[in-house]
Amino acid sequence: MEPATQVWWFAAGRLLATVLIGCGAGWLFGNPFGGLAIALALHLTWVLVNLVRLEWWLRHRNYADPPDIGGVWGEVISQIVRLHRRKRFHKQRFVQLMRQLQRSTAALPNGVVILNAQREIVWFNRMAARLLNLRRTGDLGMRIEHLLREPEFVRYLAKGDYSNPVVIRQSSADECYLSLQVAPYGDGQLLLLVSDVSRQMRLEAVRRDFVANASHELRSPLTVVSGYLETLGADGSLDPELRGPIAEMRRQAERMTAIIRDLLELSRLEETDEVVGGEPVDVAALAALLRKDVLARAVHPREVRVRIDSEARLLGDEPEIHSAFSNLVDNAAKYTPPEGSIEMRWWVDEDGGHFAVTDTGFGIPSEHIPRLTERFYRVDAGRARATGGSGLGLAIVKHVLQRHHGTLEVRSQLGSGSTFTCHFPLERVAATAPAVSAATA
Ligand code: ADP
Predict the structure, then answer these.
(1) Is the C-beta atom of 362 inside 6 A of ligand 1?
(2) What is the pLDDT of residue 183?
(3) Probe ligand 1: pick from 260, 341, 378, max atoms within 8 Å of CB?
(4) Are 421 and 439 in contact (CB under 8 A)?
(5) Which of 265, 296, 282 is nearest to 399 (CA)?
(6) Which of 21, 217, 269, 422 has the fewest Cβ atoms surrounding its Cβ within 10 A?
(7) From ligand 1's centre to the CA of 113, what distance in Å?
(8) Is the same domain home to 424 and 283?
């Protein structure tokens, strides 16, 4: 028999003995029930005394020894002692773990801020305090947007898409750039990771300046070479054997000019901050212009359609929007055979404005799609070279869209065509006029 069961049997036996003794003694005095009542009252008193001792010890158990009672009471007390010891052990382990966690996060080279579901600061480490100028006394419990007011960060936080970090320039310190990334966890809580990326941004600026300067320096000699090649090509007395090589040299010089032009445009796009506001761009007029450009090409797809589903204007920088859309339409024209067709479409819905260029061209294998906007990335280098592309067109599109808080979506089926869609947020749409009937030019 287990010791716990034993004590219960013992308690039951004692109660039975009390009852029997009470009844027996009462019987001797001619009142067995009176004897039983006295015996039970004594038993109850003993139980109450034990309860009082137990309750007193529970209140003072941190420094008082447990009462020395046997039987069932002793068993209950030893169970409580065991539970208490186990709880103390777990508490110590938890405190140690917390200390280790705090020490390790404090030693992290990156800043860590814990935010609750209301985006109020719950905790931050030393690095976060240094990078974000947070004060342990005043800033705990404050909403993070009230302390970090940079518009890029406020927008990033509101957007809820935390797959990539956002880089902000700290207003309090010159040339200090911070990368901020949010990682959601638990029940709406957020972990904000902060790192100093000033060095990377400085290197990036040096690289950008170098590319811009090199492109600029190359432009003048190339203009001279192109000019002479043009004169030579137009010279009727030129040896016929030289005509071919000179024509090829002119083509290559034109390609180099296109590359330098696009490199300079990319540098210019990277140099300035995002487009704030901007003017309303008439997408219908722009699409009509681009259609004319395609039809003016020596070789072009048979059909070029324009479908305008909304009269709403697009708010942005007109030359940049023109450049982005023209690059997409230019690609569609370049990578679609003459018997194919192109369609440009502009529409507005509750997500924002969308401009799509669909072609029935060669299409792109799916594994290349994620890398298309990288500089000089080409799916088929031979075809791209033959069409005279600089390899920078889609990189320009991506930059222009980024500066307008837009995104580029590419869908393509090898052999049957591609659709490149520019998605702009609602704040970039000037007026949501009612949809007009589809116009096919
Ligand atoms: P390029 O000047 O070479 O056209 P881009 O940056 O504009 O450079 O495009 C990158 C690559 O993406 C192209 O070389 C081409 O292989 C592919 N591409 C772009 N648009 C299309 C399209 N509409 N159809 C098929 N391939 C395309």
Answers:
(1) yes
(2) 94
(3) 378
(4) no
(5) 265
(6) 217
(7) 42
(8) yes
The rounded Å distance from CA 365 to ligand 1 centre is 12
Output the CA 182–ligand 1 centroid distance in Å.
34
Task: Give the pLDDT of residue 173.
Answer: 62
Q: Nearest-CA neighbor of 428 among 395, 410, 403, 393?
A: 403
* CA pair distance 277, 360, nearest whole angstrom: 35
CA atoms within 13 A on the CB side of 338: 4
CA distance 143 to 166: 18
| Same domain for 327 and 266 | no
Asked if 12 and 125 sit in the same domain, the reply is: no
Cα(378) to centroid(ligand 1), Å: 6
pLDDT for 433 beyond 70: no
394 close to ligand 1 (CB < 6 Angstrom): yes
Report the pLDDT value the prediction gives residue 321, as an integer from 0 to 100.
Answer: 96
113 and 192 housed in the same domain = yes
Token pair for 166? 């956002």
Indicate whether 310 and 262 sit together in one domain: no
pLDDT score, position 390 = 82
User: 260 CB less than 6 Å from ligand 1?
Assistant: no
441 found inside a domain: no
The total number of residues shown for the chain amounts to 441
Strand order in the sheet with 121-124: 121-124, 111-115, 189-196, 177-185, 166-169
Q: Which two tokens stand for residue 402?
A: 């980024």
The pLDDT tens digits for 296-351 are: 999 999 999 999 999 999 999 999 999 999 999 999 999 999 999 999 999 999 99
Domain boundary at 249, 270, 291, which? 270
CATH code at position 188 = 3.30.450.20
Ligand 1 within 6 A of CB of 378: yes
Report pLDDT digits (tens) over 103-118.
888 788 899 999 999 9
Mean pLDDT of 382-408: 87
415 in the same domain as 287: yes
Instruction: Pick from 323, 372, 374, 401 the residue to mutate for probing ligand 1's pocket: most ligand atoms within 8 Å of its CB.
Output: 372
In ligand 1, which atom is closest to the CA atom of 377? 10
Which residue has the least CA distance to atom 4 on ligand 1? 389
Q: Are residues 391 and 300 in the same domain?
A: yes
Of the listed ranges 63-67, 89-93, 154-158, 374-378, the one predicted with least confidence: 63-67
Which range marks the domain in which residue 257 is found? 200-270
Tens of pLDDT, residue by residue over 83-105, are 989 999 999 999 999 999 888 88
Nearest CA to ligand 1 atom 21: 331
Q: Please report which confidence band the pLDDT of residue 273 belongs to, taking 50, 70 and 90 as the band edges.
A: low
